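Exercise 7. Given the components listed, write out the predicted structure of the assembled complex. Treat all entries as one system.
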Amino acid sequence: MTPEELDEIATIERETTHQFQHRVSVCVGTGCHSAHSEEVKTALEKEVSRQGLENWCQVKGVGCRGLCASGPMVEVDTAARLYQGVTPEDAVEIVETLDTGSVPRLECPTDLPFFTRQTKIVLEHAGRIDPERIEDYIVMGGYTALLKTLTEMTPAEVIEQITTSGLRGRGGGGYPTGLKWRTVAIAAGTQKYIICNGDEGDPGAFMDRSILESDPHRILEGMAIAAYAVGADEGYVYVRAEYPLAIKRLRAAIIQAERNGLLGKNIFGTPFSFHVEIRLGAGAFVCGEETALIASIEGRRGTPRPRPPYPAEFGLWGCPTLINNVETIANIVPIVRNGGAWFAEIGTENSKGTKVFALTGRVNHTGLIEVPMGITLREIVFDIGGGIPDGRKFKAVQTGGPSGGCIPEEYLDMTVDYASLAQVGSIMGSGGMIIMDETSNMVDVARYFMEFCMTESCGKCIPCRVGTVQMHELLCRIAAGQATPHDLELLEELCDLVKQTSLCGLGQSSPNPVLSTLRYFRNEYMDQLAAKPGE
Amino acid sequence: MSVPAGKKLKLPLPSDDRRWRLVGATMRRHGYRPSALIETLHTVQESFGYVDNDALRFVANGLHVPLSRAYGVATFYHFFSFKPPGKHTCAICLGTACYIKGGPDNLKALEEAFDVQAGETTADGQLSLLTARCLGACGLAPAAVFDGEMVGRLDRMEIQQRVERLLNDDARRT
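Answer.
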């Protein structure tokens, strides 16, 4: 592939698209796919060809539009009209009204705060391009950031841009990405690896899944740029086996990129070569931890090991290895394209850019959202999320999955950034945001997460292996109304012990859901004790 | 004795079952490297629906991995099962979003209606009832997967009817 050829693909694709009078985009992302949007797409295609309109109207599948609860979503002519809850039977009407108007009963207002209050960087292509066609990605400027990197920038310059951007790891830790890249770049050794962590294990989170399913080439391009910057020539994408659609689209994307010379040997005629392989997770939450993930790629049990040495110096097969989360990698292309300074203008002092959240639970508009850092929780829940259904009252928002905490109403006006969330006893985490209303029992929520950590504990270190079982036992006793005040004391003591002494993040953060619910909803624990203090 | 990748003698297959060739092909594609253990177990799980002792021996042998390690890895990861699945499967999502929207209720309904515990198969081998950590369909919570087909916004009634339909479709055909 030469720069001219890349340009030509984009030109041809643009001209082809312009030949059509109308474009009907059917969401084939996570949620809509489950709501049978493929059948809607087939019905629309059939109807278009039945009326002999193939050269007049284009039907295409596009990535996630975010409003998963209203799927399947169909968009006509780039946001001119948006339809929700479409069935295959609606195809005739949609095609017939293309020129004349719309189908009012299916219309979804596009001026909802759900759409207008978002800032899309990571998801800029989601809902606009066909994730299964590389041409669609290229026409949006795809792979030009890689071209720019390879032909105009030195690895040090790339790292400098990432550092300037202030981007921090989106997998939960929030470690500065530029610093991580620099550590790998200066690490000794000729063989280096890069790993994209797509082992999205938090229950209630599907950001990475959606990115991989909506825009797989974005990940491949980002990985290639990262590989060039740190001096790696081999990369792995570690994806959960529970995400078959993401795996399928990523596989297809790798093959397309290889065929077009955008992955492989001497990319764009430069000395830079880069190969990507997919590795499937096998259902172990702990594999989201980087040393466990490396063990899993090496074909072993996914148990973490003590750090240091960090993977940046001693990673996959003992070589320096860069591990970044899917969403982190998805931010690389726009940063290289627009410059680190552009990115640093978005967000807050210490948290730059945007964050993708999976907004779920007891909220009206469930789905996937991307918001600038610094937005308040209230805006997310009540404006974008449309508030709580059935006239119920908001109680808490849970962030960070089993490692995070529950944030009560009094902090709804707090801004969303790494520091603020940590201050109230939760974490940014990977981006699950579960809204709970007055019907949720907080002791049960804590018990739920503890059961999760107990089941997922790898068993390597004793505090986590034994501690989670004991904490779960105590929470069950409390929930069953059989606990004494002494049990509650014991629980708090154990929380502290497990937090301080566990080997990896899973154990260290497993008490967080208990600690945060104890902090804000202690009365619920007290109410469920069999004997009250002093009795 | 180590054999250079690519020049490896053909591995004897455990039986004539054509599915073993798929498993062999995965190992060959990875040059019979021990690191291909999990990838190969995925092929076994996908082809046979579960991992049994024959499969473990075959894979351990092919990749030059001690049988104990192959067993250790296979049992560590939840994705691999050691019992043949029922004719039909229903996997109920118990991720956080599904949990607070009634997933456990749906599970209980099926356990009672079909006399089967989560993670088990009915005595007649017709239905396996499974639970999932999170299917990533949180926007459609509570969700479940019926024989590979994902359905969202389920309640006790509907989930029961859907499973009955799965089982009855067979009865009608035979």
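Discussion: The longest strand of chain B covers residues 88-93. Chain B has two domains: 1-83, 88-173.
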